[in-house]
Specification:
This protein has 454 residues and is mainly α. It has one domain: Hydantoin permease, CATH 1.10.4160. 76% of the residues lie in helices and 0% in strands. The chain has helices spanning 15-26, 29-41, 45-73, 77-87, 95-127, 136-147, 150-169, 172-201, 204-212, 221-233, 241-246, 255-283, 293-305, 309-343, 347-367, 382-409, 412-419, 425-449.
Length: 454
């Protein structure tokens, strides 16, 4: 039945467009902001090795499954799951998986936009020379002034949401595809330039040794769990973004090959970010395991001390903003497609409505750092609570449900036909991983995230 099903929203012009779009969705703040500091905190090379293994065994199988579902359904995630469940003789309640994905993407963007606003703000800080000859105390003051000002955070949050909705309102080819064709090559070019600078001016040998020389004595159980969790989250799985992008994928494009290309590009960005960041950190005598403050509080110290630091800092925060922008347009896309398909709204009006609601929810996150900082629920600020609910509960459950549906509910003939792999060893390997290995790993990640495994 799915052969004649087409998306009313259009489709990508080809394989490259999808790879750029899906990579743009996957490559975000997590690759450039989070990956370097969690690698730094967990011993470098050994952690990277475990992370790569987890990408292969968890990330790739589930990503293939999510793209498979999207292309077979050709609708928003809610309708896709309900339609495919009915085709496979299962309950339409599987549509709830689609709802959870739409809601998760919507909630994530509401606070993601606030953090992305920090990156936008730092573009202007870097360009103005604010980091020049500034010590740790001065950089900390810049960050505190930004997050402590409700009006400043609201301004940057609003600007970033406006940038996001401008792209989404234009549609698949004129908006999403055109944006990623500029953003992703631009991001890679800037990243390569920064790696080149790190080779010339940073302690490149020490940075490479730290990143790629395994020290298994530093590899704890907790580090393995963190690697498993990040391998799952870095590919934007379980939030409907990859499913809706898959619904725009042309029928003749190989899901397996494209997934490997996306995973490879996503991993390359994370590793290149580490290769750009750690040599600079070591050259300036800073701490590689500086935690979440690595990008916004540690690196600016280095930018202020190094030759050409104003240009390097400017390029770095432009790159960070590009990465955030390419992810944000995918986070809101599932909600926009649902509004178009169910409420008969034009693409522009659906984008405005979804963007305004997301912006309004993001106010809570922006105010969590200042005016609402003392108001907590379950001992968490509004920002922390939304982050916890999405990252630790909704996304793992979404990924688990995707693996269970494709591995256990969907007939082999259906998944085999959509993957176009035939009765090959490759299909058998994917089917085994998505049925047994990936679900088990995601359950472990979920139990770890909620504190049942320590």
């Amino acid at each position: 039945m799915n052969e004649k099903r087409t998306s009313i929203h259009g489709q990508w012009s080809g394989r490259l467009a999808f790879i750029l779009a899906a990579t743009g969705s996957a490559v975000g703040l997590g690759n450039i902001w989070k990956f370097p500091y969690i690698a730094g905190e967990n011993g470098g090379g050994a952690f990277v090795l475990v992370y790569l293994i987890c990408i292969a065994l968890i990330g790739v199988p589930i990503m293939m499954a999510e793209i498979l579902l999207g292309r077979r359904g050709r609708q928003n995630p809610v309708h896709t799951m309900a339609t495919l469940a009915e085709e496979e003789g299962a309950s339409k309640a599987w549509g709830l998986l689609g709802w959870m994905g739409v809601l998760a993407g919507f909630m994530i963007l509401s606070y993601y936009s606030v953090v992305a606003g920090w990156a936008l703000s730092y573009i202007f800080e870097a360009a103005s020379g604010a980091f020049s000859n500034t010590d740790a105390k001065g950089v900390s003051a810049i960050f505190s002034d930004l997050t402590g000002s409700a009006s400043s955070l609201m301004l940057w949050h609003t600007l970033f949401m406006f940038m996001t909705m401008i792209v989404v309102a234009q549609g698949v080819k004129s908006g999403l595809e055109r944006a990623v064709k500029w953003l992703m090559p631009g991001l890679f070019v800037i990243l390569v330039l920064l790696v080149g600078y790190a080779m010339a001016e940073g302690n490149f040998a020490q940075g490479i040794h730290f990143l790629f020389s395994p020290d298994f004595s530093k590899l704890s159980t907790d580090a393995i769990l963190i690697a498993m969790g990040h391998a799952f989250f870095t590919l934007s799985l379980g939030m409907g973004a990859i499913m809706i992008y898959g619904s725009y994928l042309p029928e003749n494009v190989s899901i397996a090959r494209t997934t490997f290309m996306v995973a490879l590009a996503d991993t390359a960005v994370a590793l290149l970010a580490g290769m750009a960041i750690f040599p600079i950190v070591f050259a300036n005598g800073l701490e590689p395991g500086a935690g979440p403050g690595l990008v916004f509080q540690t690196l600016p110290i280095a930018f202020g001390q190094m030759p050409g630091g104003v240009i390097v800092g400017l390029l770095f925060f432009i790159m960070l903003s590009f990465a955030a922008w390419s992810s944000s347009i995918s986070l809101i896309e599932p909600a926009v497609t649902w509004l178009v398909e169910n409420k008969n709204l034009t693409r522009g009006r659906a984008s405005i409505l979804a963007g305004m609601v997301t912006w309004a929810l993001g106010i809570g996150s922006a105010l969590s750092f200042n005016l609402w900082g003392d108001y907590k629920l379950l001992d968490k600020t509004f920002f922390d609570l939304i982050d916890y609910l999405t990252a630790n509960i909704m996304l793992p459950l979404g990924g688990l449900a995707i693996a269970i549906f494709t591995g256990w509910v969907m007939h082999r003939s259906s998944s085999r036909g959509e993957l176009q792999m035939g009765e090959s060893a490759s299909f058998e390997l994917w089917h085994f991983l998505v049925r047994f290995v990936a679900p088990f790993a995601v359950i472990i990640v979920f139990f770890s995230a909620i504190g049942l495994i320590k």
